[in-house]
Write a structure and sequence with these properties.
The chain has 318 residues and is α+β, with helices and mostly antiparallel strands. The chain has one domain: Methenyltetrahydromethanopterin Cyclohydrolase, Chain A, domain 2 (2-Layer Sandwich). 35% of the residues lie in helices and 23% in strands. The protein contains 13 helices and twelve strands. It has a six-stranded mixed sheet, with helices on both faces. The chain has a six-stranded mixed sheet with strand order 3-4-9-10-11-12. Strand 11 and strand 12 form a beta hairpin. Helix 1 runs antiparallel to helix 2. The N and C termini lie far apart (52 Å). It is found in: Cytoplasm. One of its GO terms (molecular function) is methenyltetrahydromethanopterin cyclohydrolase activity. InterPro entries: METHMP_CycHdrlase.
Length: 318
């Protein structure tokens, strides 16, 4: 089943469930589902958004966390037996949706219909329309022009487009970003030259941070990224030559980056709030474990950074 069709089914279920505290709008003939801009949203809405990003090809849930070590009682856990499709074909935020009156980073399986990303082309991750579904991280609902641009780039009509949207400072938006632990490990592996088609399964977890103040987008982005960079743990099961694993394992965790060691909001500010200036090696989990099904060997690298999480989450001793 296509990830877009699976995500569309999730959207149909969601708008019929008042407990998710969502609102469905028609903008430029597309269906736009608000999960935290003009509505309250919540934890369940965040889990729904994450599943939409993943094309319903992964399980996402809240689990207890070690609050003494990682400063949160809850964590977002993800598991999937289709990590390449779910994480890189769906969840990766690789589409900057930009018009004269709107900007947001786009993720979700609609990216595979658009197809204009190097990672999608290299891994041959493609789907055809007409149904396209995606998620935008934004403080505002998309404009009619933005919706039209999405439809045009996917070569479909706006009426066949469904978009979920939430800010990084909302509860739902926070959950869906922190659900990207496995995705960041998969993308980092790909960037390091490892053939991610050899990754058979993935599991990851990261602490759920406190929400940033409404409107403080930088703090929201910072806390959600830090949850993964300094508190994320990922295990990947691969079927690959052992030398391929050994060649990359030390480079996969976030500590391999020169920008590691400070809250992301500080790093972001130093680079003039330009994501493209941040060291790309930073965007990965704190700890990565790779279990090789072919050799029976396990490799682990990285470390948690409780002190950085405490600073990022705004925790002070009383």
């Amino acid at each position: 089943m296509s990830l877009n069709l699976a995500a569309a089914a999730l959207c149909e279920q969601a708008i019929a469930d008042p407990q998710l505290r969502l609102a469905s709008h028609t903008i430029g003939d597309a269906r736009v589902i608000d999960a935290g801009i003009e509505v309250e949203g919540g934890l369940e809405a965040g889990l729904w958004l994450a599943r939409v990003c993943l094309g319903d090809a992964a399980d996402v849930r809240l689990v207890p966390e070690d609050s003494q070590r990682l400063h949160s009682d809850l964590a977002v856990a993800v598991r999937t037996d289709a990590p390449r499709q779910a994480c890189l074909g769906g969840q990766y935020a690789g589409w900057p949706v930009q018009t004269d009156d709107y900007f947001a980073m786009g993720s979700g399986p609609m990216r595979m219909v658009r197809g204009r990303e190097a990672v999608l082309e290299t891994l041959q991750l493609q789907e055809s329309g007409p149904t396209v579904v995606g998620v935008l991280e934004s403080d505002t609902l998309p404009t009619a022009a933005a919706v039209a641009a999405i439809a045009a780039e996917c070569q479909t009509e706006a009426k066949d487009v469904t978009i979920g949207v939430a800010p990084s400072t909302s509860l739902a938006g926070t959950v869906q970003v922190v659900a990207r632990s496995v995705e960041t490990a998969m993308h980092k592996l790909h960037e390091c030259g490892f053939d991610v088609r050899n990754v058979r399964s993935g599991w990851g977890v990261a602490p759920l941070p406190p929400m940033a103040k409404p409107g403080d987008t930088v703090a929201g982005i910072g806390r959600t990224n830090d949850a993964i960079l300094y508190g994320g743990r990922v295990t990947l099961w691969v079927d690959a030559p052992q030398q391929d694993v050994d060649a990359v394992i030390e480079r996969v965790p976030s500590q391999s980056s020169k920008d590691h060691g400070r809250p992301f909001a500080e790093v972001f500010k130093d680079y003039g709030y330009d994501f493209y200036k941040v060291d790309p090696l930073l965007f990965s989990p704190a700890v990565v474990t790779i279990v090789n099904l072919r050799t029976g060997q396990t490799r682990r690298s990285g470390q948690l950074a409780s002190d950085v999480l405490a600073r990022s989450f705004g925790l002070e001793a009383i």
